[in-house]
Amino acid sequence: MSSFKAIFKKQFKDTLKNMGTLINFIIFPLVAFAMSMLVVVEFEGVPEDIAQMLSANMPNLVTMMAAVFAGMGLIPAVTGIISEDIEKKSLRFLHMAGVKPAGYLLGVGGITFMFSIGTAIAFGLISDFVGRDFWIFVASILSGVAASIVLGATIGITSQNQQSATALAMPIALILGFGPMMAQFNDTIARVLHIFYTQQLNVIADYLAVSGVETPLWQSFAIIWVNVAVLGIIFAIVYKKKGLKG
Question: In terms of CB atoms within 10 Å, which of 54, 82, 174, 232 comes out highest?
């Protein structure tokens, strides 16, 4: 627990100093807000039935950006944090000081998750979901965040330096982040991506915003957390093989 607290405090200070990392938690909800405002301005004064249709589809705009945040934003961020410490041999000194690798990972992941809570709430407010639906939507985003943290950590410890980590993380992040956006317009892509956690954010938003969606809400959350579990197993295998001593 003491190791977790030490790493948590260290990473909190480092995150506040690193604008490149900090901007990830701010820019995506801002873009989603700007997109929603553009739609309102563009279609102001249209007939009521069309306005209602646009209002019903508004959560999709926000959800697409939430998926981009969880995928493209967080995976490279977590990967970069860990690969930087490995490259600079910081983990070796932490290990010599008695900091356990598990405490390090919990600290890095914990601070990333904490900052993501504010981002998820911002997405929920922009989406216009209220009451129970609001918290379900926020929980779905944070579930995706958990998966991205584990995936980013796995990529980070497999890399020798930041350059190789970025080269591996970005293609994966782009697919998981922008895939759900393309799935909005292509049923084949939607079916292929159905097993991935970022696509399930779209499914949950559709369930909350549109009546008659067949996929049960619990099933989408189950798919997300199966993703987390599978990624956790992969991380455990990689961790056992390589470790985090740097």
Answer: 82
Tell me the torsion sign for CA atoms 143, 146, 152, 154. negative
The two three-digit tokens of residue 83, written as one number:
């690969």
Q: What is the pTM of this model?
A: 0.85
Quick one: CA torsion of 34, 36, 37, 43, rounded to 10 degrees? 140
DSSP code for 194: T
Nearest residue to 193 via CA among 218, 176, 212, 207: 176
180-198 pLDDT, tens digit per residue, is: 888 877 888 888 888 999 9
Nearest to 137 by CA among 200, 223, 212: 200
pLDDT tens figures, 11-70: 888 888 888 788 889 999 998 888 777 765 454 555 555 555 555 555 577 888 888 898
Alpha helix positions (H), 88-212: 90-96, 101-127, 131-157, 162-183, 187-193, 197-209
